[in-house]
Amino acid sequence: MTTLTPFLPVKQNSLRMALVIARREIRDSFRDWRIILPIFLLTLAFPALMNFTARRAIAFADQYGAEIIATQLIPFLLLVVGFFPMSFSLIIALETFVGEKERNSLEPLLASPLTNTELYAGKMLAALAPPLTASYLGMSVYMFSLWINLAWRPEPELIIQVMLLTTVQGVIMVAAAVVVSSQATSVRAANLLASFIIVPMALLIQFEAGALFWGNHAGLWWLIVGLGLTAVVLIRMGLYVFNREELLGRDIDQIRLGWMFQVYWRRLSGQGWNGRFPRPLAWYRETLTIFPTLLQPIGMLLLAFGGAVLFGIWLAYQYTLPPDMQAELTGANMAANLEQYAFLLTALPIVIILQNVRVIALQALLGVFTFGVLAVLIFMLPWGVMAFLATQFYLAGQNPFQFLLAAFVPHALLEFPALLITTAAILRWQVVIIHPSPDHTLSENFLMRMADFTRIFLGVGLPLLITAAFVEAHITTHVLQMIYG
Amino acid sequence: MIETENLGKVFDTFTAVQNLTLNVPAGQLLALLGPNGAGKTTTVRMIGAILKPTTGYARVNGYDVVTQADGVRRSIGMLTEQPGLYTRMSGLEYLEFYGRLYGIPDKETRAKGKAMFERFYMAGAEDKRLGTYSKGMRQKVGLIRSMLHNPAVLLLDEPTSAMDPHSAKLVRDAILELRNDRRTVILCTHNLAEAELLADKIAIIKQGQIVAQGTFTELKQQLLGRPQLEVRVDKPLNGQVKELDHLVTVESVANDTIRYRTDNPDLTNPQLVRCLHKLGLGVISLQPVSQSLEQVYLRVIEEME
Ligand SMILES: Nc1ncnc2c1ncn2[C@@H]1O[C@H](COP(=O)(O)OP(=O)(O)O)[C@@H](O)[C@H]1O
Ligand SMILES: [Mg+2]
């Protein structure tokens, strides 16, 4: 239980076994018209429709001389053409992973000498191959007809990027479907859980659309790398949950929402099995015992903090403000500006608290889907900005420490530890999947650490942030006035 | 061939099987007999290296089910409680698929599959989709699947439970043949008659524990105890029975009959008759009371409620 199934070098024999599984599954999918008909339509009819759309858009834009927008639209539509057939991988995956459990055909397979990895790989392949083929085919049809009709030819980089994106998204959806399916014994329940995959995917597509629209190719490469890493993590997770013991060793009849809430609530409130709640002081003492487990994530975050500061400094050297703007960059100006906003100051603490809480919510939410990666990045952001500004002051001939002391230090003294501790709790919760503790199931681990994070946030993070906000609104502004005014 | 010691399985907090010690020598058929929920399926899943035991160990064909699970899986054929077939495949396609998992060439599988279909009176159905098969047919296909690679050990989880009497008989005949073939078999069943017919040894399992185990005759003795005898006399009895107490254990007395048990009927029965004669009672009949194991088994099982 403590170690994950390692990536074994695939023996010749293992590959054959995986292919035997995959072939059977694919043949089965092709006999299911509910799957095959839509894929077929999406592959051929959809590109034609998109092609028509692209041509109309270009003709329309030409009238107004906005050709650029139209030509940016074509790559975006390419992405859409590729994505739609690919989304079927999710449906097939749920069908092959949960459907098989539901119809009891999994157990005979588990009694055969197949290894967990062979079975997993075979099913993964079966869920990916048909939609991927359809997706490539659809994109080819779309590009070919655009080439015929408009003599438009995409850059090779674009084609490679879109194909990679489509592929890696397929892998992510299938790998995520496996993880989801481990929590459900019926296809219906799994379909409900699948919205945890669909929603982030839809957001991702919007993001990619934006990047494609603005022609941000470097950004897309980073995205591909990030998605690739996510896929690897999801596959490891899938291998962890897809094994004989997990598949048959539990009676999960529905998504156990009630049970899930109870595990979370008991851990959060400290309610004992006798139903009694601890007194506030005892609750605090319990919360403090979480701290030792946070040391490791805190260490990591301190490293990230150092990185963010260095990056901010580097960025300031790269993009030094032009001299006329540097001239504006004086403490006196800041103080003057501040006076204009004096009427806002009374409302400021609330605004600052809300802002910080929103940031933490964002970290918690986005971090869940990225195993903490985005939580760390969001944590780094303000400190990077701070370093960037301080360096700009320095480059403009001002004293950067004076600036830091005036604008940041008073409240950052509280805000920094608050954000550090809270983010550490978020991180500890979100990497649970990669590093679960052995004496509980994965879902219990996840819920308990989520509750631990909530405890830390309510008991430590929030009080510190509230204090920091008052300091920021009342003391920092005075310090600013004192130093620069 | 199959050996378990103190085998146990706890799911979260629920103990499904505990202290299960079995020994099935090569070529023997053991029936694991017990009601629903007794832990039969969990036991064969552990023996088949599908679930890991939480206590004790099990060895199959010399392989440990935890550390040498692959060896165990290669040694066994398993008929799961639910046949779990793929409804969109034909019978032969299905067998071919499983054949490949065990490295059997398609041609061989096909030949063997056809012969088996014939043997189970399903000739002609092998190319039809499994979705069109009846319940009994599906179970039979599952059985064929489990025997496809000629495993030394077979684990059959309630093979006849969903079948009509005719199919059940076919399957029982097939199991008898496996036994004559000197395969080692564990057969889970809740049907005593089936266990009696097929098994060399029977282990009765109840609430995850073995409550009795042995050959049919041994079980009978163990559960029924000494045979009960009934003697009928020609006059109504009144009080004379006390005179018999030093000879046998009297269990019940009716108007003109006495039921009793004895350790040594050869010695005591003639004495009893003589004694009755002395008391002025003529013996009309003396015979063992028939008591079926079925009744006893049901009683054992009911005790748990
Ligand atoms: N995966 C599981 N999780 C929790 N409990 C289980 C699981 N499998 C079986 N059980 C429980 O273990 C007991 C024994 O089940 P089983 O071995 O299927 O009995 P049988 O095959 O004799 O009917 C039952 O009470 C059942 O509910
Ligand atoms: Mg059972």
Written description of the protein model:
The complex is a heterodimer of chains A (485) and B (305). Chain A has helices at 12-30, 33-63, 67-86, 88-102, 106-111, 116-150, 156-181, 187-193, 195-213, 217-241, 244-248, 257-269, 280-288, 291-318, 323-328, 331-340, 342-345, 348-370, 373-395, 400-407, 409-430, 442-484. Chain A is mostly helical. Chain A folds into two domains: 10-249, no CATH class; 259-484, no CATH class. In chain A, helix 14 packs across helix 19, helix 18 (348-370) packs parallel to helix 21 and helix 18 runs antiparallel to helix 22. Chain A is flat. The termini of chain A are far apart. Residues 1-12 of chain A have low confidence and may be disordered. Chain B is elongated. In chain B, strand 12 (249-253) and strand 13 (257-261) form a beta hairpin. The model of chain B has no long low-confidence stretch (mean pLDDT 87). Chain B has two domains: 2-214, P-loop containing nucleotide triphosphate hydrolases (Rossmann fold, 3-Layer(aba) Sandwich), CATH 3.40.50.300; 227-290, Alpha-Beta Plaits. In chain B, helix 3 (91-101) crosses helix 4. Chain B is built from ten helices and 14 strands. Chain B is of the alpha/beta class and 305 residues long. At the A-B interface, helix 1, helix 5 and helix 11 of A face helix 2 and helix 3 of B.
Question: Key features?
Answer:
heterodimer; A: 485 residues; mainly alpha; flat; disordered N terminus; B: 305 residues; alpha/beta; Rossmann fold; Alpha-Beta Plaits; 2 domains; 10 helices; 14 strands; elongated; binds adenosine-5'-diphosphate; binds magnesium ion
Question: What is this structure, in a nutshell?
Answer:
The complex is a heterodimer of chains A (about 475) and B (about 300). By secondary structure, chain A is mainly alpha-helical.
* SSE pattern of chain A: HHHHHHHHHHHHHHHHHHHHHH
Number of individual domains of chain A: 2
Work out the helix count of chain B: 10
Overall strand count of chain B: 14
Secondary-structure element pattern of chain B, one letter each? EEEHEEHEHHHEHEHEEHEEEHEH
Quick one: CATH class of the largest domain in chain B? Answer: Alpha Beta
Proportion of beta-strand residues of chain A: under 5%
Small molecules held by this entry: adenosine-5'-diphosphate, magnesium ion
Query: Which oligomeric form is depicted?
Result: heterodimer
Largest sheet of chain A: none
Q: Bin the helical content of chain A.
A: over 70%
Question: How many distinct folded domains of chain B?
Answer: 2
Please, what is the average pLDDT of chain A? 78
Fraction of residues in H or I helices of chain B: 25-40%
How many helices of chain A in DSSP terms? 22
Span of the ends, CA to CA of chain B? 35 Å
Weakly predicted, low-confidence segments of chain B: none
